[in-house]
UniProtKB/TrEMBL annotation:
It comes from Aspergillus homomorphus (strain CBS 101889). Residues 436-479, 750-794 form the Chitin-binding type-1 domain. Residues 513-710 form the NodB homology domain. Keywords: Carbohydrate metabolism, Chitin-binding, Cobalt, Disulfide bond, Hydrolase, Membrane, Metal-binding, Signal, Transmembrane, Transmembrane helix, Virulence. This is Glycoside hydrolase/deacetylase. GO terms for biological process: carbohydrate metabolic process. Gene3D superfamilies: Endochitinase-like, Glycoside hydrolase/deacetylase, Leucine-rich Repeat Variant. Disulfide bonds join C446-C458, C451-C465, C753-C768, C767-C781.
């Protein structure tokens, strides 16, 4: 009893501090509150509805705080809170949050994010088990309150009789559709899908399809809607799916606009990819519409002659026997792994049917090749024109969907989309191969050379191996690819300068009149444009660099553009800081792994600049004292930098939604009590709207208000000589010798090589060029070829035979101009130029 009274008194005291005018005090109070909620002594709240409701009200108020770090801490408190709430208080909390989403005066992304945190934390049904009483009670609250608000409209909480508010998924006249609301829906499906009633599934499907059917919905919103469809169809009954297919067929036949047709094609692809077994019977019904979209602008006029070859217009689906139609449309541009993007193949399995249908992309040069028991028509065409075609109209959507349909053959299997981990609602859902071995906590490691995806499956695709989603403890990840040169571990690390070092955390600037714009996760493809913009405004910024994340390759890899961008950053007066090697959560990994995350990034930046930074920002802003992270950062001599304005640009990367990030920035500056109060702003240069829209808005705003855009070091009054540490043991670019021991060589899955990564066996080709790329031409296999990382043969081009449209094997046989090398393969990749290879690799990423 005494413990309970002490906890109750502590909670009441902390709730009073949430009204403190000092944002740091509010933040620290919420941090203490999080500790109390995680304590076993707070379980009494489940039986004390008054105290629980009071606590929920306090957190709701904190969610509307003007400071992003306070809001984020309030969100973290919601997870443990829902485990303490009685059912009545849970339903009330959900209702109040859904009402906030209808407000015109609040950034609705905050309550929507809060809803996702809550839904993720709720007890849920477990596969193969009867739902527990807690899971049933949680679903009851979601069903009674949240689902009706998602679909809407519902009665307004105001006192006006007959007043209604729009559903969260409906289009708002001023804000448009909400991708945040769709994310809430996806989380509801992932958590409670098996319990959803048929009427609820239908209502949710109708709401999502209203977004898909709307030509004005932005790209981000439409993609999230398609992800929701993928999640919904897993729980459809046979009758519901049958009705849904009829609905799609009617829409295809209603002469939709080009944009609408593209959305419908992508919807078919989402169903085929998510529920292939269910979709199979509907293949003859929907696939003709997909291939019609694919070929509509790409098929030559009937019976035209070019260079002595007769081309035929593709017959309408109705004229082709359904039993043979699909095998004849196995185009390599639909293959999941596509260096094959450089040609399209239409083959036949049944020799009694002799029709093949070449696709004409206006620049195709036909050449016919024959393989045993298989007639193939191969077209090699200009990569740039092909790229222009693929990016136009609905080609990409149709190609991707058709690829999903092709994978429904008996020898292809895809697993359904899996739910996000309960402890991190920010991780994106990942679809992986169901045929792979399971891996992860409680299961074990993948076999050698395979990666463990975030969903817990072994494989070797980019989805499996790309960090930070790849599980580094349970298989190979691209995070295990190490930078060249010697370790920086023994370099002296004096704690010089005026800025605090770890374990202290820096959340704000100290020099009046300054604003430090910071950008995380880069460099990426938009970073060059950002540097151009900053130069135009003569503004300085700080870049928190990640060494190898999101499958971009290592920042110090030869031939990649990242090193030159980082050198330009420094030459332009911007500050370079560390955001770790592969963006791991530093609070969730071991001490040795934390040190590697910093040391490897140091080595890569040292290889580029000759020195490395003393400033760092932990990924996900996660570096706790309990995990030992803060102490480790102090031992490594780092300033730990957070922020006091979170633009939340990662949530709003679309032209229709980036205004929310602008509003967050503007409201923070407008609410300041001191005219020249400094600010520390977080954004991400990996997002297109951040670079091309938000940044210029922030620059105009802060300059108009009399602020100076500066680096973090300058806004802290720290002299530039203390921003970096010199490594006098290096002279320019180091070799890619792997000084960090990794058990064995890994076959390249992304076309890059070096260190412990080899091209021998890679689908991109067996030779590793001097610039660190896999290929099969003399430019890869001849002079400069790295024999330690692949096959080198300067006398001949090396052909790459394709055994399956998803798996490639290398062969040492040269491809004759007139006759392909003998192989058991079904397809043969024609040789392509290096520039085409680069373009086609990009296309493969876009399509795949």
């Amino acid at each position: 009893m005494a413990d309970r009274q002490a906890v109750q008194h502590n909670l009441n005291s902390l709730l009073l501090k949430l009204d403190d005018p000092d944002p740091d005090m509010r933040y620290m109070s919420l941090n203490d509150l999080l500790g109390v909620l995680n304590s076993p002594n707070s379980t009494y709240l489940a039986h004390d509805q008054f105290s629980a409701s009071k606590l929920a009200e306090g957190l709701l108020k904190a969610l509307d705080d003007q400071h992003g770090d306070v809001q984020n801490q309030a969100l973290k408190c919601l997870g443990p809170l829902v485990h303490r709430l009685p059912f009545e208080s849970l339903a009330s909390l959900l209702e109040k949050l859904t009402n906030l989403t209808a407000s015109q005066t609040i950034d609705t992304s905050v309550p929507n994010t809060a809803l996702r945190y809550i839904v993720t934390a709720l007890p849920r049904p477990q596969a193969g088990q009867q739902p527990s009483l807690d899971a049933t009670s949680a679903y009851s609250a979601v069903s009674r309150v949240l689902i009706p608000r998602l679909t809407g409209p519902v009665q307004s909480p105001s006192s006006r009789r007959g007043s209604v508010v729009k559903g969260m998924l409906e289009k708002d006249p001023s804000k448009g559709f909400s991708s945040d609301a769709i994310d809430v829906l996806i989380q509801v499906i992932n958590c409670f899908g098996p319990l959803l009633k048929e009427a609820e599934l239908t209502a949710l499907k109708d709401s999502v399809m209203s977004i898909v059917d709307n030509d004005t919905a932005g790209t981000v919103v439409t993609k999230r809607a398609l992800a929701a469809i993928s999640a919904l169809v897993l729980h459809f009954s046979d009758n519901q799916l049958n009705l849904f297919v009829k609905e799609l067929t009617q829409k295809f036949n209603s002469q939709p606009t080009t944009v609408h047709q593209r959305h419908l094609v992508a919807t078919v692809g989402s169903i085929a990819k998510s529920a292939p077994a269910k979709f199979g019977p509907y293949l003859p019904t929907l696939a003709p519409f997909v291939f019609s979209a694919l070929g509509e602008d790409a098929v030559a006029p009937a019976t035209t002659v070019s260079q002595g070859k007769t081309r035929y217009r593709m017959p309408p689906p109705a004229l082709l026997p359904p039993s043979h139609y699909w095998d004849k449309l196995v185009a390599s541009c639909l293959a999941k792994s596509t260096t094959a993007a450089s040609f399209c193949v239409v083959g036949q399995r049944d020799q009694n049917i002799s029709a093949t249908f070449p696709l004409d992309f206006s620049s195709i040069l036909p050449q016919t090749s024959y393989l045993p028991h298989q007639t193939l028509t191969v077209f090699t065409f200009g990569a740039m024109r092909m790229l222009n075609w693929a990016l136009s109209v609905y080609g990409l959507a149709a190609c991707t969907t058709a690829r999903n349909i092709i994978t429904l053959q008996s020898n292809h299997h895809l697993s359904p989309i899996l739910p996000r981990p309960q402890d991190d609602v920010s991780i994106q859902t990942l679809s992986v191969r169901a045929t792979g071995k399971r891996c992860g906590s409680g299961v074990g490691k993948c076999p050698e050379k395979l990666c463990c995806s975030t969903a817990g499956y072994c494989g070797d695709t980019k989805d499996h191996c790309a960090s930070p989603d790849c599980q580094i403890d349970y298989g190979y990840c691209d995070a295990h690819m190490t930078p060249g040169g010697s370790s920086t571990e023994d370099i002296p690390r004096p704690l010089d300068g005026v800025a605090l070092y770890g374990p202290h955390i820096i959340r704000s600037c100290t020099v009046p009149g300054t604003v430090a714009l910071t950008y995380d996760d880069g460099p990426k493809e938009f970073t060059k444009d950002l540097l151009d913009l900053l130069d135009r405004y003569e503004a300085k910024a700080t870049f928190f660099i990640t060494g190898n994340n999101n499958a971009k390759g290592q920042i110090d890899s030869p031939g990649m553009p990242w090193a030159s961008l980082i050198q330009r950053m420094h030459a332009s007066g911007h500050q370079i800081a560390s955001h770790t090697w592969s963006h791991q959560d530093l609070s969730k990994i071991s001490r040795d792994q934390r040190r590697i995350q910093l040391l490897w990034n140091e080595a890569a930046l040292r290889n580029i600049l000759g020195f490395f930074p003393t400033y760092m920002r932990p990924p996900y802003s996660s570096c706790t004292a309990e995990s030992g992270c803060l102490e480790d950062m102090g031992e490594l001599g780092y300033h730990i930098i957070l922020y006091d304005i979170d633009t939340e640009d990662y949530k709003h990367d679309s032209p229709t939604e980036i205004q929310r990030s602008k509003d967050i920035f503007d409201s923070s500056l407008d609410a300041r009590t001191a005219f020249d109060r400094p600010w520390l702003v977080i954004a991400h240069d990996v997002h297109e709207q951040t670079v091309h829209n938000l940044t210029e808005h922030m620059l105009k705003k802060l300059i108009a208000e009399g602020f100076r855009p500066v680096t973090v070091g300058e806004c802290l009054g720290d002299p530039p000589k203390y921003w970096y540490r010199e490594d006098n043991t290096v002279d320019g670019r180091n070799s890619r010798k792997n000084v960090f021991k990794v058990p064995s060589r890994i076959v390249s899955f992304d076309g890059m090589c070096g260190g412990n990564v080899t091209c021998d066996g890679s689908r991109f080709g067996p030779c590793c060029s001097g610039t660190g790329f896999c290929g099969n031409l003399t430019t890869f296999c001849g002079e400069g070829c790295q024999s330690d990382n692949g096959i080198c043969d300067s006398k001949t081009n090396v052909a790459v035979a394709v055994e399956d449209h998803t798996d490639f094997k290398a062969t040492g046989k040269a491809m004759s101009k007139d006759k392909p090398a003998k192989s058991d393969a079904s397809y043969m990749v024609p040789l392509i130029l290096p520039v085409e290879f680069a373009v086609l690799s990009l296309l493969a990423v876009l399509i795949g």
